[in-house]
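pasting for ref
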Amino acid sequence: MDYQYFEVCIGHGPEESDHDFRMCIRGVKVPTIAEIELFCAADVSLYGGHVLGVYPIDKETAESCYDFGNESNWPVFGH
């Protein structure tokens, strides 16, 4: 299956900053912020704040910026 990759930004402010937490997720469709709040609820709770943004990224960029060692076990958004 072909997955899409997205960078999620979780933070406290109304705008993104260098202090925010970023993570990569994979999905089969483009998520909304509200959908990502639910999908990443455990991470949002762990890091506090709320989802500030979700951005499509290509697989090559995702692999260069994030650890893909356990990708086969990642949950899939929209699946």
